From TrEMBL:
Source organism, top-level taxon: Bacteria
Gene3D superfamilies: Alkaline Phosphatase, subunit A (3.40.720.10)
Domain (Sulfatase N-terminal): residue spans on this chain: 9-331
Keyword Iron-sulfur: no
PANTHER family: ARYLSULFATASE FAMILY MEMBER, ENDO-4-O-SULFATASE
PROSITE patterns associated with the record: SULFATASE_1
Organism this protein belongs to: Rubellicoccus peritrichatus
GO function terms (MF aspect): arylsulfatase activity; metal ion binding
Protein name: Arylsulfatase
Pfam families on file: Sulfatase (PF00884)
Family (UniProt): Belongs to the sulfatase family.
Keywords on record: Calcium, Hydrolase, Metal-binding
Length: 606
């Protein structure tokens, strides 16, 4: 905190989904209009060589813990590998311990059951949707961006005719207003995490028509329209903060969670073919800079942050730096550690001096590593980049052509010229850095975070979104996959905390619509500004199987089957389980001998 200040600053962290570095007018986008964010940009310190993970859940895990995402237990958006390590305190935990009121509004994607939800992880108040985006399998059935059933601290709440981004900003303003009115001397920490502009690109035409009229493809025009709506909402929030004199002592951070998605199209080598990505190679998911470099904007008028030319920071920074930075700026330690001890447990560095214009002590030899796994079990050398302030060593194997490339960051920011042969010594040094990094993070690859079941549990719902060992590259994640009856399967990991008898109910459709397993469901079309929902297919499923093994030994515990009747909404199995970890495999078999998992599994103690 500034010298002489006794009031800890508020913290407002805004994270958008799939908005990349080039998705602002202030970073040179020739089509997009973001006047309110441009104004914020002009008032703030701007981190230009700022990196996250190439996909959303890992970025969130690293941001909230200050650790590389794999250490935090998150290296995929699916496969049960998005459950945040319960032994690592979150940013909200640190602020709550320091006496802050904490709130979270929007996308969570760090686990969809008890022990993992935001109100279990340090947030006093939380309103959120299920899964990684509205309309995924863990989300309430048939939710869309204009009409949705959301969860407030674990209880459902219906929102009608209200756009999701508007809801998140409204709730943020309400949280701040209620808190500062009731406890004006107590600071707040608020995490506003929009699901926009992530697909589906559904937005009112008032925001997208301008971009359609410029001749942009429909998907990109709607993507930009969603960002225009974010910009409008941010302007409204910023006006509120200023009207309440809260802007001066609030640390406000704004960033996206990975590289752009619909803002650019690329070829098989990651080079842009249309759109805008600030000259970078790759986009979301890719290992090149365009997949994970973003803009981080930080404003704190009372904090003595840099002004003038020093507002533009080109030093190598990352999402893992923000937690130690905020702890430093707010003079916060954990309840039982000194500030130095707290930071030593984190992978990131405090940027406090850098934000105030002093980079004299910032280590020029810093090395960072980024990778994209999207697998149940991580694979070495898959889609990674080693970064220094001068060089990039990248191999984009699944999302690119798989060539190992060394590029000069300062003279070739578009990463077009491979200098691997001419600068082999540098490449070897960066390879060694990768090996050291992999050796460190791989210690956490044996961690598995289960669904917890106990005597006091209400119904626990597990979904295909969390299947381990999935057989499809992208997994099963959307409600549309349930509608088409995708033929895939994987196991779920559970932990029994108190031995008991449990009933497991295998469903094709979620309990909120309670539809027979064999039946189809109606589609939905013609709703203004909302993507159509195709009809759900009827399937001639005749058998349900339930298989339980101990974990990790694989010893068989249960292997049973029942016939599926015409009107059965679920197939029920009751089994006694002792304390411990188990793998659950569910299977529906149809008349063509296709085997697919039960997309929904409800469990309760008997």
């Amino acid at each position: 905190m500034p010298a002489g200040s006794s009031q800890k600053p508020n913290v407002l962290l805004i994270l958008t989904d799939d908005q990349g570095y080039g998705d602002y007018s202030c970073t040179g986008n020739p089509w997009l209009r973001t006047p309110n964010l441009d104004k914020l940009y002009s008032e703030s310190v701007r981190l230009h060589d700022f990196h996250l993970d190439p996909m959303c859940a890992p970025s969130r895990a690293a941001l909230l813990t200050g650790k590389y995402s794999a250490k935090a237990g998150v290296w995929s958006t699916l496969s049960g590998r998005y459950f945040l390590n319960r032994d690592i305190p979150t940013m909200a935990d640190h602020f709550k311990t320091a006496g802050y009121r904490t709130g979270m509004f929007g996308k969570w994607h760090m686990g969809d059951s008890d022990r993992y939800l935001p109100h279990d992880r340090g947030f006093d108040e939380a309103l959120y949707h299920g899964g990684g985006v509205i309309g995924e399998i863990p989300d309430y059935w048939d939710n869309d961006y204009f009409n949705s059933t959301l969860m407030r601290n674990g209880n459902s709440e219906v929102f009608t005719d209200k756009y999701c981004t508007d809801i998140w900003f409204d709730e943020t303003i309400s949280f701040i207003e209620r808190h500062t009115t009731a406890s004006p001397d107590k600071p707040f920490f608020c995490y506003l995490s929009t699901n926009a502009p992530h697909w589906p690109h559904d937005v009112h035409e008032n925001y997208s028509n301008y971009y359609l009229e410029q001749g942009l493809p429909e998907s990109r025009a709607k993507f930009y329209g969603m960002i225009a709506n974010i910009d409008e909402n941010f302007g409204r929030l910023n006006t509120y903060l200023k009207s309440k004199d809260l802007d001066q002592n609030t640390i406000l951070l704004f960033m996206g969670d990975n590289g752009t998605d619909a803002g650019a199209s690329v070829d098989s080598a990651g080079h842009m073919t249309s759109g805008f990505n600030a000259g970078m190679r790759g986009k979301k998911c890719w290992a090149y800079d365009g997949g994970h470099r973003n803009l981080c904007i930080i404003r704190w008028p009372n904090g003595g942050l840099a002004q003038g030319p020093s507002q533009d920071v080109d030093r190598l920074t990352a999402h893992i730096d923000l937690l130690p930075t905020l702890l430093d700026l707010c003079n916060i330690t954990s309840s039982d550690q000194s500030s130095d001890e707290t930071e030593s447990l984190l992978d990131g560095w405090s940027l406090a001096d850098l934000l105030r214009g002093d980079d004299s002590a910032y280590y020029a030899g810093r090395t960072l590593v980024v990778h994209n796994q999207q697998k149940d079990n991580p694979v070495k050398f898959k889609d990674y980049e080693v970064l220094t302030e001068d060089w990039r060593l990248a191999q984009s194997s699944e999302w690119g052509e798989g060539t190992l490339e060394l590029t000069d960051k300062r003279n070739d920011p578009g990463q077009r010229h491979n200098l691997l042969e001419s600068h082999g010594d540098i490449a070897n040094e960066l390879k060694r850095s990768y090996e050291e990094w992999w050796s460190e993070i791989s210690k956490g690859f044996n961690q598995s975070w289960p669904f917890y079941l106990g005597l006091n549990s209400e119904i626990v719902t597990m979904t295909a979104h969390a299947w381990h060992s999935i057989t499809r590259r992208d997994g099963i994640y959307a409600q549309s996959h349930c509608r088409t009856g995708e033929i895939h399967n994987g196991y779920l990991l559970i932990e029994i905390e108190q031995k008991s008898r449990f009933e497991f109910r295998l469903r094709r459709w979620p309990k909120e619509i309670d539809t027979p397993i064999r039946s189809g469901v109606t589609g939905r079309s013609g709703v203004p500004y909302v993507s159509d929902f195709e009809p759900g297919l009827a399937l001639k499923i005749h058998t349900a199987k339930f298989h339980v093994e101990s974990h990790p030994s694989g010893n068989l515990v249960v292997d049973e089957s029942v016939a599926v009747g015409e009107q059965m909404c679920y197939a029920a199995f009751q089994v006694h389980l002792d304390t411990g970890l188990y793998r659950i495999l569910t299977t529906f078999i149809d008349d063509e001998n296709n085997e697919r998992g039960a997309y929904y599994l409800d469990v309760m103690p008997v």
